[in-house]
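Quick one: structure tokens for this chain, please?
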Amino acid sequence: MVASAFRCFKPPPKLSLPNWIEKNVRLPAGSTALPGPMRLYPYQRDMAAAIGDAEIERVTVVKGVRIGWTALLTGALGHYVKNDPAPIIALLPTESDCRDYTTSDLEPTFEASPALRGMLSDDQKEGERNTMLSRRFSGGSLRIIAAGAPRNLRAKTARILFADEADAMSITPEGDPLVLAERRTLSFPNRKIVIGSTPVFEDTSAVLRRYAESDQRVFEVPCPACGAFNEIQWQHIVWEDGKPETACYKCPHCQAQIDERKKNLMVMHGEWRATKPEITNHAGFRINCLVSPLANARWGILAAEFVKAQNDPSKLQAFRNTILAEGWREPGEELNDLEIAGRREAFSLDAIPQEVLLITCGIDVQGDRLEAVILGHGRDSEMFVLGHEVIWGAPTDEETWLELDQLLQKQWRHPYGNSIGIDACAIDSGGHWTEAVYNFCTPRLRRRVLAIKGMQGPRPILQSANHHKTKKGARIFLVGVDTVKAALFSRLKRNHGIRFSHTLENAWFDQLCSERLVVRYVKGAPQRRFERLPGKRAEALDGMCYAIAARQIISASLTDREDALKVERPLPAKPTVFRSNFMHR
């Protein structure tokens, strides 16, 4: 009787992580289009199971957007806080990412879920750096750390490591933040490392590199016509010419064209297949947006996005990265200056093309001159190199800057009838004449004359550095030169959207093509870098990059600008005729 009674009070079987998430995690209103109990998509279940499997040490996810990864990660984090408490580190690219995740996802989800409500308490100590958020819970702790501040990883250990958007993390002076974070888990034999990211560049992607070390699972769905399983890739999406809304899936096995309405049924019966099943302790998942059931991931919508992006390398890269979960590979490393010089056309500052609606200027400061690249901008990101001006004189000479000011205020006749001038200018302040640049730019900031400093690594094209102010109050803008150069080189290689004036000399094109893209290993991690070719000067390239960056500060509507440039040309006035009475005498 005792034994029988004991069996009656046996604890219920432990829920798997996918079932636990669906039973206990609730998504708050405002964070998702479908608030309420979290229901995992079919492709999310195996991902969640691998994260909760004690036999699997590593989980790597190569992902597109619109697949629900952040919600899944938050649900998995809630599982460890509630059921398997341990020291946890969540690594995100920047401090703002950490705070956005905490306030927009983590805290609202925990508050909306009765099983998790009140489990996290603030553990921030007095004097603790604001680059790290810390929370305590019974049996463990959670630290949300910015990869850009790896010093916060010192003296911190964790059994569980979650890293999101790994490809957006920059190499720091202390090394690769992912590697540093992984080392913080070495003291735990039962550690768990979960890394997910949208891939960026194929040759340096941290998440693609780790996925290659995993069992490399792909999500395959059955064809409703023939039953064959296949991973949906972009080459399988077809549509009628000029009608992206008709996009459908073309089965590579039977060639049947499957309508969007059957996608959810296909995904429901989809399965993960490990292409390297011999690897047992590292689960890798590759999932793109084509299987997402969300309304904004319909094939017709994605096809329309592709049509808009296909002729713009920067937009096409974003499509491949975020929608297809593929790394981007540049078409080549070096540019051919003679081939690009052969693209010159018959236009100039004195004969501005009608398509030009805005003008920016990039200034490279040298010891005996200022070199200005004047760039016109049209619709669809089309650019026109209108001219190259050299102002001779030392940067310490007031006359040099006075001549530049006259150039920046100059007006040229536009084909529409009105005049057009320089809308924004970016001047490099990173050399030996920083104070002279500040003194010129500060009183002209309202005219969009910017003192800029080029920064390497994955950065925004133009970013106001509020904390980078001189004692005199000069504002500095940071330019992501690698970001600009990558987009510029890609467009030049593809001969897309950049046109050149016939007034540009061959030497200017030699300077434009003065660098090449290489991959170097820095502290054990591959990095894409632009390196100067031996014996080359780069004033034209630098000025071009600064002029492109200056475009970012202009918010004027191109339609409004086009209307402003158009003026009614009055008909020539008829000459006044004064008649004499002499002949009538």
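Residues 453 and 478 are 5 Å apart (CA to CA).
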